[in-house]
Amino acid sequence: xxPLTALWLILPAYIANASAVLMGGGTPxxxxxxxxxxxxxxxxxxxxxxxGGMVLGSAVGYLQALLSPESFGGYPVLLLxxxxxxxxxxxxxxxxxxxxxxxxxxxxxKWLLADQLDFLAGACCVCFLGSEAMKRGGISxxxxxxxxxxxWHLMFLFIFxxxxxxxxxxxxxxxxxxxVPW
Length: 182
Fold this sequence. Notes:
Layout: H1 2-23, E1 34-35, E2 38-39, H2 47-67, H3 77-102, H4 114-136, H5 144-148, H6 151-174
Antiparallel strand pairs: 1-2
């Protein structure tokens, strides 16, 4: 039951991360600017992908809440929770791209585990912080993230996600959606 629950709860982050690739293109988030001689994020991180990923990830989460109202807490907690999972996934990916550029790695260059776990770590961090803010602000009686994800859920996700990521990227590469199979 832990694997299915973990996947169900993290699905908005997975969808946000995957749909950013599918919906990407257009103006880069960094507008092509450089910092210390290197791109801030690079041309692969676009406004269209970022916003599209947030919208689709959140939409899937809201649909999940309709199907299973207890999944993300009651209203208004579920609105902020689902949004924080989607936003966090994309913020984690952006942060990883920023670090990757600082290390001199090129767009599409393989970076084992960082490329597969950046969005998951970002989703967890932002959702935890958002849940804590809702608790302290009196919107929620507790921290939804800590109540929903046990150590076992997180261990499963951090072990399973790289395998899923490699599989999806390989299929996307074969379909011509991605330039590299990782």
